[in-house]
Amino acid sequence: MAAAQAAADKKAQDIVIIDVGDQLAITDAFLLAAAPNERQVLAIVDAIEERLLELPEKAKPVRREGERGGRWVLLDYVDIVVHVQHTEEREFYALDRLWKDCPQIPFVDRDLADSAAGTASAE
Question: For strand 104-105 and strand 80-86, is the pairing parallel, antiparallel, or unpaired?
Fold first, then answer.
C-alpha cells in the first residue's frame, strides 16, 4: 500500500494491485502504475523507492530493470513486484488482462478519499 500511495502522490495513473500469490511462486503481488512520459515514470519509481526505504523494514529492491529507457521500470521487492510503465506500454502489454483471473487488492488514493470525505461532510 505504501508503494501504491507513493505512486499516487506522483500522479501515477491506473494504479492496480494484483494478488498473484496463488499463480506465481516468486512473488505475492504486482503493483501496476502508468505515466504519460518517461520523466514521470522515473519520478514515480524514485518516489516508490524513497517511500519504501522510510518503512521500518527499509525495503530495497533486489532487482531493478528498465530504468535507462524510462518506458517500463520493474522493481522487484520479492513479496511485491512494481511495474511502472509508460501509458503506451501499459496499453500494449496489458498486464491487467494477462492476470485478469487473479484477484485485485483494493487501493484508494488517500488524497481522493480525503477529498471525497470532505465533499460528503460539506453537504
Answer: unpaired
Measured from the Cβ of residue 75, the count of other Cβ atoms closer than 10 Å reads 24
Question: Taking the chain (123 residues) in consecutive chunks of 10 residues, what is each chunk's mean pLDDT?
Answer: 97 97 95 97 97 94 91 96 97 95 94 62 49
Phi and psi, residue 32, nearest 5°: -110, 135
Longest dimension (CA), the chain: 48
Cβ(36)–Cβ(89) below 8 Å: no
User: Where would I find the beta strands (DSSP E) of 11-66?
Assistant: 13-19, 29-35, 63-65
Residue 48's nearest CA partner among 5, 79, 16 is 5
- Domain ranges in the chain? 1-108
Length of the chain, please? Answer: 123
Q: Assign domain 1-108 to its CATH superfamily.
A: Beta Polymerase, domain 2 (3.30.460.10)
Q: Which residues contact 99 (CB under 8 A, 6 or more apart)?
A: 18, 20, 23, 30
